[in-house]
Amino acid sequence: MTEPLVTLQNLEKRYGHRMAIHDVSLQLYPGEAVALVGMSGGGKSTIMRLIAGLEKPTGGRLTYQDPAPVMRVMYQDDRLLPWLTVQDNVGFGQHGQWVTDLLAAVGLSEAAEQYPAQLSGGQRQRLALARALLAKPQLLLLDEPLGALDALTRRKMQDLIMRICAERHLSSLLITHDVQEAARMADWIIVVKDGTNVYQTAGAKGQEAATVAKVGEDVLRVILDEQVRA
Amino acid sequence: MDNVTTITTPETARRHWRFPMAQLLPWLLPVTFLALWQLSVSSGLITSSLVPSPWAVFQDGVDLWQAGTLPTNISISLYRATVGFVIGGGLGFLLGLLNGLSKRSRALLDTPLQMLRNIPHLSLIPVVIILLGIGETAKISLVAIGVLFPIYINTYHGIANSDSELLEMGRSYGLSKWQLFSKIIFPGALPTILMGVRYGLGIMWTTLIVAETMSSNSGIGYMATNAQEFMDMKTVLLCIVLYALLGKLSDLIAKGLESTFLAWRTKGVTIND
What we know:
The complex is a heterodimer.
Chain A: E1 6-15, E2 18-28, E3 33-37, H1 44-51, E4 59-64, E5 71-75, H2 86-91, H3 97-105, H4 121-133, E6 139-143, H5 151-167, E7 171-176, H6 179-185, E8 188-193, E9 196-202, H7 209-223
Parallel strand pairs in A: 3-7, 3-8, 5-6, 6-7
Antiparallel strand pairs in A: 1-2, 1-4, 8-9
Chain B: H1 10-16, H2 21-42, H3 54-67, H4 69-101, H5 103-117, H6 125-132, H7 136-160, H8 164-172, H9 177-214, H10 220-229, H11 233-261
């Protein structure tokens, strides 16, 4: 049986007296796309930050596959380095065929010599994606990276991320407010509420629009405390 | 297929030529001032023995240049300014770097440095003269002390206030400490550091002028003081013009550094997908 990349068992994180998350248990398997959805302040980002190793849990267990998987985070605010050109942002100044290939994979070959300020929002996130892929990660942690994009660019980015994850057999953990986005991109959707995971359902990745819409609608009902349709 | 030939008519050529307003505008007021000054002296509105005309000041400059006095004094002033700036600026930069990067160093050095910073450095002139005399070391030391603090403060703030989100990204992307410094911390601090350099260049000239006026036997400041003793207004005014020109040169150097190292800031045109 395939070993999970990351396992969370009753994970807990406190900031002083404030409990950010508690009793969070989930597993991320290779090649799987999981989405965490829920209201703001529910604890989604804290779960991702703990998995990414950006913060330490205060309770429970967080274990990784051995050897530990390479993980990369994509942030909503792209966090590009404004003083480096597009190609230097990908490799932090290192050039090579791998950087060229990554820029081609995200459709930014022609912008290689430009600076981030010269790019549109969608191009900036494509660049952030290329940078995240440089270390050949096994797990992409997507912290609402598409939140600030317009609907059309957002749709294109969703397709690009799904295509790249499929081609490279990449696992992904997507944090989003958009239940339709979660339904469209994920194999599994986990609803996080008041600091813990309260509901899990299958996503509709690769399925037709009507199924995506129904899954999204059901998840939204859970978030809003309504009855899920049978 | 038809061949298309573009013929440039005089009308078209004329349309392409534009009055270089942007280039000329900064010089409009200085030139007007000089012209009015010259006219006032030539027409007798101002007594030429009291305030010589710009042309007379220029002539005096040419004479002093040919006699070798001007090149010698400009060279010695430039030497003092440059050496003082390099020593003070270098020390300020290193201290700023050290305190910006290390909490322990900050705890040890920042308070004494902030106390020293609040002492007007020109008030140290008597102390410097007593300790170091009126030689080169005294003047270079004063320039160095003056330049040290603006560069220290700006380097320290630039480094200490690095973008925490970019640093978090860098750490999570596995950058080494050196890479975090060279790719994120230093480039992010550079605009603030260069602001300190620009401010330091201004202080460099002010300090040097005061130091050379008070205790020296060479340099532009000395030339002005010496001329004042002989009521030689032409040379006094010439020295003031030289200060203005050297100040402008410093400003050009600062701008040059900014346009070289901060070129990315001007590339901000957003395009659509």
